Each structure stands twice: as structure tokens, then as C-alpha cells.
Amino acid sequence: MISVVGSLNLDLVAGVPHHPVPGETVLGGDIAEHPGGKGANQAVAAARLGGRVGFVGRVGDDEAGRAMTEAVRVQGVDTRHLAVTPGVPTGRAMIAVSPEGENTIIVSPGANSRLSEADCESAADQLRNAGVTVLQQEVPDEANHAAARLAGGTVLYNPAPAVAGAVPPPQVDILVPNRTELAALAGCEVPRTVEEVTAAARRLRGAAAVVVTLGGDGALVLEGSAHRHVPAFPVRPVDTTAAGDCFCGALAVALDEGRTLEQAVLWAAAAAALSTTRAGAQSSLARRGEVAQFLEQHGAGR
Ligand code: ADP
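A: This is the predicted complex of the input protein with adenosine-5'-diphosphate.
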């Protein structure tokens, strides 16, 4: 099984004619509410793709918390280690989208910021038995470090969102940053070319493998001294929100099923490419059958 330790947010999305400057009020469009948060997105991605998934996280004792819990539960995610924090609101992301499609996002972590070492200890059985444990950076370091310590299987760490100076737990087996997150970890400029990405990823110490996601340029896999570029599948993207989350969830499922890292990256790239062809975050996430069909269409078999 797969254990995801991480965040759940209620995403509040409104269109704006332009982004406000300090002191300015702008009138936006109607608010749309969607389930989100990197932890929840990755858990739902893994569940949709056929993984047996348990979640470790926190919501507030409010309507949003109940709705976010239900959103992951109906996808088949085990929520027994999803705790309720009295007196603290559920995490929310306030997202303004300009007509050019540019986002500004304010995340209020709320209950996510209360996830603790003790919470992970309460979920020790789940973490110990998981074939893959998936972590991101929307919950406190303390929780991530405890979860990595308790994890019995492969530890996959998505250092997102980028936090300068963040130190992944020493037990991490596979780091999965995008270019910006890689720059934050390696302490360098955002690398552009595959050669620059390879050089930056080589500076990371600790994890046995690094998989750098490169958007429409695919992914770069570094394992020991070897590296390989996996090109992106050719699709017409509509909305790349949660492509990285889909990729991480899919990678966890494939690794939990015993595929090699290279096979797993190819499968994850297919699932993530599919997710970019649809709008939204959790609503865009691919299902297992679709990935198999997509791979066949692209001559990559199962
Ligand atoms: P993030 O959303 O975390 O920034 P990326 O943008 O790197 O992550 O996307 C994650 C993965 O999704 C990529 O490695 C790639 O496999 C797939 N992907 C993203 N954008 C595209 C695209 N335009 N075409 C095909 N695949 C894509």
C-alpha cells in the first residue's frame, strides 16, 4: 500500500481583470471551490490509478474540513489517520487568475500546519507497512521527518512548494522536484537545459535517485552515476495544474507494484500528460485504464 502524509486545502478560485497591487481592491468573478492541497491531490492521483492509499493529515472542525475529507474518501483513500483539529480552520488556497491565465496564490495552511510527529507516530503501523510513503512540503518538517523515520518502504519526497533552505529527511530514497524546487534544494539558479538540470541534480546529496520533472520537456532520472532523459508525451495541454501531483501519485503506484524506476517514470509521465489535457486539479487526474490505453496509442505498451 501507499501512505501519503500531507496537506488538504479548499481551493478558492476567482478570475480577476488584473492582479491587485498593495492597497488596491479589484472586483473578481464568481468564486469556484475545489478540493486541493498537494497531499490530497497526490493521494487521489494514486487511488484513481489503482493504488491502495492511506492518508495522514489534519483538517479543521469545519464544513471545509468535512468536504475535503469526503473528497479523498470517495476516491477510496483510507482516512482513518486524517485528524480533526478543533479551533483551527482547514487549509485554504486563495487563487486569483488573470485573463492571461497567470495565477497569484495565497495559501493559509491552517490545520495542515498542526500536523505533528505525534500524528505520524499514531499512524506508525500504516507507515511501517507501506510499500511507498509520499511526502511534500505543505506540512511541518517535523511531521515529514517523523514519517520518513517510521516508513518501512521506499520514501518518495516531493519538495513542493519550493522552500529555500529546506532539508529533506535523510531517509528519502527518491527526490521528485521540478526545476524551481531543484534550484531551491541545490542553491542555484533555476536550471533550463537538460545539461544544467543534470548538473544541479548531481549536487543533491543523500537520496539514491532524483527524478526532476520538466513540464513539457518530460523528466530527468538520475540513479547513482547514470542519468536518462524521458521525453514528455505529445499532448495539447489545457491546464497543467496538479500535473506534478499526478506524476508523484502515479510514480508511487508504479513503484509499489514493483516496477523499476525507469518504467515507473514512463508510466507517471503518461498519467501526468493525460492530466494536462483536462481542466482542474483533482478532477483532471487520470484513471488506470486511461493510462494503459494512452500508452498503447503512443506505442509504449503497458
Ligand atoms: P509541476 O506541476 O510540479 O511543476 P511539471 O510541470 O514538471 O510539474 O509536470 C510534471 C510532469 O507532468 C512532467 O514531468 C511531464 O511528465 C508531465 N507534463 C507536464 N506538462 C506537460 C506537457 N505540456 N506535455 C506533456 N506532459 C507534461
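The chain has one domain: 2-20+29-297. The radius of gyration is 18 Å.
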